[in-house]
Each structure stands twice: as C-alpha cells, then as structure tokens.
Amino acid sequence: MISGATRVAAVIGAPVKHSLSPALHNAAFAQLGVDWVYTAFEVAPGNAQQAVDAMRVLRLGGLSVTMPHKEGVAQAVDALDSAAAALRSVNTVVPQADGSLKGYSTDGAGFVASLAAAGVEVHGRTVCLLGAGAAARSISDALARAGVARVAVLNRTFATAHEAAELAGAAGHIATVADVRAADIVVNATSIGMGSDDLPCDPAALRSGQVVADIVYHPRDTALLRAARTAGATVVDGLGMLVHQAALQQQLWHGLAPDTQVMTAAAERELAARRQ
Description:
The protein is built from eleven helices and twelve strands.
C-alpha cells in the first residue's frame, strides 16, 4: 500500500519507457518489506540539473540515472564517490543525512559482482575488454579495483581505448586481436549483439577454459555467448550486471541487501511479457 510515508525512488533517462529498473527495484522492495516504490521519469536531454533540483525539492529517496544524463548528474550533485569521480559519471544518487546529494557509479561494481555470483574470480586474472564506451570505462575501473592483473582494451579508436585503459591504472593496456585469445576473461562491453546476431570479435579467437561475458541482455543468449559455448568457454550473460548494479543501488539507498534471485526473476518475467 502506498501512503504519505512511502519513499519514492526513480530512474531518469531518455528514452526510459523500456527500462527494466522498475520491475527490478519494486520486486526488491517487496521482498525486503520496505515502504518504498520505484518509477521512471522521462527527462529530456540537457535537463540533468533540473532533475537533480527536483530530487531535492521532492525529497526522493533515491535516483537511478541512465543515458544521456550520467555526466550531467555528476556535475549537478554535491559530492562523488571514488568510482564516479574517476569516471565523471553517475548512475546512482543518494541523499545524505545533511541534506546533500552524493553520486555513485555502481555499474562496474555490479559487473564484477555478477561474475562473482557466477563463480568467476577476477583477482589476478587477465581480461580483454571489447569496447571503450561508458560501460567499458566503468568495467575497466571496477576490474582494477578488484585486483585484476591486466585489462587489455580492444577498440577501433585508439584514443578512447587509451582512456578506458587508463582507468585501470598500471593494469591497463591497449589490446591487439591476440589478447582476445590470450585472456582469461573476455568481456563484450559494447552494444553489438543487441537485437542481432552480430559478433564483437572473431569467434575463432575464443577458446576452451576462458570465461566470456556479455553485457547485452536482450537477447539474453547472444551470438557471442553461443559462439563461446561452442568453443568450450564458460559464459556469463548480461542480465547479471543489470541486477547486481541495481542491488548495490538498493543498499546505498536504505542499507539492506535485496535477494538478487528475486530481482532476476522479476526481470525475466518482464522480458517474457514483452516478447508476447
């Protein structure tokens, strides 16, 4: 039951109607038994500052941020955690006790958590990261914080590959095609394969013994994951990153850890309903 005491959290983006976040977060609130509700607000590009101002006025309990507002929100909040500051990008806003707003980035940490949930340890491993966009940058930063031995970034544009690799510090490198086969873990951090059978790398470069992860979750079983499975690799699909970054958001907002299996089931139901 929604009452005058119910805390409200929301996602802002453009477009945002397709977001799975309301299904994920409302399932988690119900599982935890907290008096919260989550919705989505369409916020036009360029209006990040106004959205943050509205969060202050309306005293929202939390905010999720998706494209194209992550950089704008990073400039609009009062403080940033270390990952958000390094990335100059925010996907989570948390009200502080003094009334200020702090920005966080849970995307990369959510990806690392999704690997851990799948039984994949990243500490000391070598990673080839395909892509150098916003998702790749957050993953590069998080992998370095998790203690990987090497993050090799493969991207068509050298400058953006260099920026993503720099976020991994001493572990960061510019990749060649040979790094795909040599890596312990291969990560597709691009949108290639979303709604298509396109591949972000030559499937012949994949091998048995590797872990191949894809951040694309629609379709959940991408062409890359099918090729990796055929090659004998262990695969991790993209829904885990979405779920675990959302679970980290919940902990930041109200201090409780939701059941990620409940959140995954909610996302699967929503995706199944959209296919009908």
